[in-house]
Specification:
Length: about 500
């Protein structure tokens, strides 16, 4: 009968908890943006084309999805291997994954601790002295005896108003937040690796252009030196050429420094030391510019962006915490019970006549806390308002990222088209001016000006090429990076 009573108490407790209501607001996923466009002007459906492999016209389509390994669209096996290694070895991703695991296990621990009964095995041995006064007769000799106790105790908090469930809901939302932080870390890292590789390729191209110009000017300096020695050129012409060579050579260390720093950054991004020579270099001709680009509609974007999903998880957590603060203003009921054996001889434990049990309960109802509970509820409400505003801010920032990147890609293509034409014209002008200068048809200042114009045009074209590659990566990042298409995504992010 004792065991039946204990079972009945647990069944009643579980039934009450299951049928109890959870006070406070229930979380609802915020509605998606109603807008269907990103930009004020009509959205571009593609970009213009320009001469050369990097001048391919790009098209935007809402029908295309983003692959999880979107960087493979650059068709560079070296870049592919580097990004995959970064996602495995980067301390940033490893730290985010460990933080996610901590949050998941914390949620599981609190789910078990708050929603399920706690059952503990207890054992105790004591030697006691009880005076006769305890039975009302001090003349009776004191009784000295041993006491042995072995029991199983159960404690359970009846979650009548949902305080425990709201707490567990908050821990689950925190785990979701860390999941999206993990996805954001992966996305940011992969985009940074691609951008660093593009930057290295651009710097190599700029160094190559500047080195060619310096070599050409040195040859020209030899010509001017011979003309000066023969009396066909003035000293001012010689000094001007020497100055031009020195000025362009002075630009080389700056570009070399930028290149070295970019190489160091790429090595660290993939989890290696800056001196690791196994990290590959990149050139623009090793990369293929993706021609067909996805463009998710705004309603889908907010479900794809990890930072927006992280903001939604924090909004969910704030909603749950408001429920906790509300439930704390209501009574709380706790049940306890134990069953076991109690004897004065260890060998008599669990024998007939040694059974002992107890069942109890406690009720705590707040009556006066000096306004503490009401103020905590108001603070939780204000925190929910903050989380709501921050979610809206994250959505607006996501829409702006896509809008800015679309316009950047459109402008990049037009800039490259113009720079390609300018470079070609500058090259033709420089070649013609060199021939004219040799026969005395133009002044030396005209030659110097032609060289300067060509150098600037070539460097601008290289920078415009690199901008298209980098802004294409920025678009993939702005659209969420395709994490939803990664196999075993749930297992990877929740393990």
């Amino acid at each position: 009968m004792t065991m039946s009573a204990a079972k009945l108490a647990l069944v009643v407790a579980a039934t009450l908890a299951a049928s109890a209501c959870a006070v406070g607001p229930d979380f609802k996923t915020p509605p998606a943006p109603t807008t269907t466009h990103y930009t004020r002007a009509p959205e571009p459906t593609g970009t213009v084309a320009a001469p050369g492999a990097s001048g391919v016209a790009q098209t935007f389509s809402s029908e295309r999805d983003i692959p999880a390994d979107w960087w493979t669209l650059y068709h560079s096996s070296a870049l592919d291997d580097l990004v995959r290694q970064a996602l495995t070895d980067s301390p940033t991703v490893q730290a985010a994954q460990a933080t996610l695991l901590t949050a998941v296990e914390t949620w599981k621990a609190n789910r078990g601790g708050l929603l399920l009964p706690a059952v503990d095995l207890q054992g105790q041995a004591e030697r006691q002295r009880e005076p006769g006064a305890v039975i009302g007769d001090p003349s009776v000799p004191a009784l000295i005896f041993n006491l042995f106790d072995a029991s199983v105790g159960v404690t359970y908090r009846l979650d009548i108003f949902g305080a425990s469930r709201r707490q567990v809901e908050g821990f689950r939302a925190q785990a979701d937040y860390q999941r999206w932080q993990f996805e954001a870390a992966r996305l940011t890292l992969s985009a940074n690796v691609v951008t660093a590789a593009v930057n290295i390729a651009s710097l190599h191209a700029q160094l190559g252009a500047l080195t060619d110009i310096v070599a050409s000017e040195r040859e020209q300096l030899k010509v001017v030196q011979r003309q000066f020695d023969a009396g066909a050129a003035s000293r001012s012409d010689l000094l001007a050429q020497q100055t031009q060579v020195a000025q362009n050579e002075a630009q080389l260390p700056g570009l070399e420094k930028q290149l070295a720093q970019a190489q160091h950054r790429l090595a660290v991004l993939v989890g290696r030391t800056p001196d690791d020579t196994s990290v590959p270099d990149f050139t623009l001709d090793q990369l293929t510019l993706p021609a067909e680009l996805p463009l998710s509609v705004p309603a889908k974007l907010v479900r794809q962006r990890p930072d927006v999903q992280a903001a939604e998880a924090l909004l969910h957590q704030s909603t749950a915490l408001l429920g906790v603060a509300t439930a704390d203003m209501y009574p709380q009921l706790n049940l306890t019970g134990s069953i076991g054996s109690e004897t004065v001889q260890a060998s008599d434990l669990f024998k007939t006549g040694s059974a002992a049990w107890n069942v109890g309960g406690s009720l705590t109802a707040p009556l006066f806390h000096g306004g503490e509970l009401l103020s905590l509820k108001r603070a939780a409400r204000a925190d929910l308002d903050r989380a709501t505003a921050e979610y809206r801010e994250a959505v607006l920032a996501a829409l702006q990222d896509v809008a800015d990147t679309l316009r950047a890609l459109e402008a990049d293509a037009r800039t490259l088209q113009a720079d390609q034409i300018t470079e070609t014209d500058a090259q033709d002008t420089l070649n013609m001016t060199k021939l004219q200068y040799k026969v005395g048809g133009v002044s030396y200042l005209a030659l110097l000006n032609a060289e300067r114009v060509y150098l600037q045009a070539r460097q601008s074209r290289v920078q415009a090429e690199a901008a298209r590659y980098a802004d294409t990566a920025a678009l993939f990042q702005a659209l969420g990076g395709g994490w939803w298409n990664r196999q075993n995504n749930a297992k990877e992010t929740r393990q």
